[in-house]
Amino acid sequence: MGEGETLGLVLIGSDKTLLTNHTGNKSCYAVYISCGNIDKRIRTKESAGAWLMVGQIPAAQFEDRAHKGLLHARLYHICMDIIMRNLKKASREPVEMPDSSGALRLVRTILHAHLADYPEQLLISCTAANTAPHSMAHMTHFEDSNPHPLKHRDTILALIDKATKAVDPDRLGRFKTHCTSLGINGVVKPFWRDWKYADPCTFLAPDALHQWHQFFWDHPMKWVRSKRLLGRRETEMRYRCLQKRVGEKFFGAGFTSLNQMTGREKRDLTSHFVGILNGHPKITPPIMDCFRGLIDFIYLAQYESHSTETLGYLDEALAAFHDNKEAVAASGVRRGVRRKNRFNIQKIELFHHVRRLIEELGSTPQFTAEQTEHCHMTMAKLPYRHTNRKGYAAQMCRFLDRQEKIHLFDLFLSWTKLVVGDPNLADPNEEFTGFGTISPAEFAEHLLPQQVQNEFEEDNPQNETTAFVLTSTISKKAISFADAASLFKLPSLEALIVEYFKHGKRIRDGADAYTDLNRNISLDSLDIWYKVRMQLYAEQDEKKVLPLVTVTASPPSEAQPFGLCNFVLVRDPEDAASSGIRGASSVFSLSIVLSYARSLCCSIESHLPTRWR
Q1: Which carries the bigger pLDDT value, residue 598 or residue 431?
Q2: pLDDT tens digits, one per residue of 254-282
């Protein structure tokens, strides 16, 4: 890198999508682009408009049906070569580009990440179907517990050169056969071949949507629903028996009847997966450790930030899976002519590269293919609906161009204060005299996607970690302990509350003897809210607040014989300075939840990973 150069981090997303909803086979192979220099919290928000469509690859129908896969792969790289021509040139010879403030910078464009699902990763890396896109592993090596050597760009280009010297690339049949034996797909000129510093084993980022959530649905869930483990009926029954939780889908009618599963639904199934396995006689400790290792890996890989310690947890979770996978194979769920009790699954091999890619590219949530899926809706499907369905590609481009011009013109009008009445932009009583007093930088702040409301800054009951948002209407006001215990069927309610505050008082006073709490806190009656919204700080970023979540604690009723109570885990260290919450009044219903959560934590501690205890 030269002196004074700025790295322009290029992010590419490409995927094929169906434009028609119910009938027809109109499709679009769209290519999107974004900039890695944009903060990931802004770039990953759809409303920020940080992604742009830069091209469409023709979904051609070739006359040579026998080699249409090879021809499509070559067409893809030819088109990408054209689309990325200027960016590749700037990677070799940096060019001047204006930044957001208008200053010119000498930018060298680097292919930072390419967002794609697994089949597209094979296409981009010019890799054959039965080999890995990142390494030299073959299908028979996908289950290995140790990673294989990386497949660097020089290795791929050397294999292509070897194939072209041995067989004429225009003789498609023989060339394809020879390339397959070498582990490549028959593309002669990859689009990244002359992109400086571009290496497929580095820029092919992990994809949480397809590589982890879809993997969970296609494999661990199918293994558990096999008759050799829980079976279909038992698995669904256990999910149906789970308590409803606000913010997550409740599978009261099961999930096998669903024709399509969204990524959010698969995540909700994953979050309860280990819990529904517990207690079944066929789930032995090694089988439980195997599944828990997989689920731990999926969640750890999605951390917003990592340290050496958390990356070590990632290695431990993957090792737990490989150390115990033979127990799952022994159950018979991997029997079959092709499976042969082995785990030759492509996505398992990709697990070995997650730590390396996190260290080189950054945290994985910013590279999920969900971003390109959202782009399909606004930049492909919507424009297609505004066409006459004939020659739609050019009409879609024209539609997007016009929408962008309209958007920019609206921004210009807002900046010049023509949008009178918006308190964020102008004074309604001020006469328009040309350009306003809002600078471009201030206006840019106004355009950013709105962040989560910080309830810690409001006058809400809160402690050091949690803010509680209460409604003005109290579900049960000034109710006695006896009535509350009868309502919630909690005979030891008063004793638990006293014990909780007794514990906190001992910590504050450093005293071994019990102090009479009645001098400071009245325990005659309770104010109870059935629902409360809670806000926490992010575990890995103490300055970032998370969205509000609703916690429910409704008493038993005819519709809910056991009530509707969410489970809450509370971290209450022994050296805590205080317990309880601060606010205008004491909220004992929250203390009830905290007391029960602490007692329940003791009972489940043995089932949690060591780092969570």
Answers
A1: 431
A2: 777 666 777 788 888 888 899 889 889 99
* CA neighbor of 13 nearest in space, from 268, 406, 366: 366
- Tokens in use for 588? 């004992």
Q: Tokens 């023709």 identify what position? A: 58
Q: What is the rounded distance in angstroms from the CA atom of residue 188 to the CA atom of residue 201?
A: 18
Residue 411 confidence class, pLDDT cut points 50, 70, 90: confident
Distance in angstroms (rounded) separating the CA atoms of residues 444 and 451 = 14
Q: Which helix (H) or strand (E) holds 224?
A: helix 220-224
Residues 6+ apart with CB under 8 A from 253: 240
Number of residues in the chain? 613
Residue 153, pLDDT > 90, answer yes
CA distance 244 to 268: 12
In whole angstroms, what is the distance from residue 330 CA to residue 466 CA?
Answer: 46
Cβ within 8 Å of residue 111, ≥6 positions away: 10, 12, 87, 91, 192, 195, 197, 198, 203
Alpha helices in 278-387 (DSSP H): 285-300, 308-330, 346-350, 354-361, 370-376, 382-385
DSSP symbols for 155-221: HHHHHHHHHHHHS-TTSHHHHHHHHHHHTB-S-SS-TTTTSTT--HHHHB---IIIIIIHHHHHTHH
CA–CA separation, 14 vs 29, rounded Å? Answer: 7
Secondary structure (3-state) at 30: strand
Q: What is the pLDDT of residues 107-119, one digit of tens each?
A: 999 999 999 999 9
Please state the φ and ψ torsions of residue 28, each to the nearest 5 degrees.
-140, 130
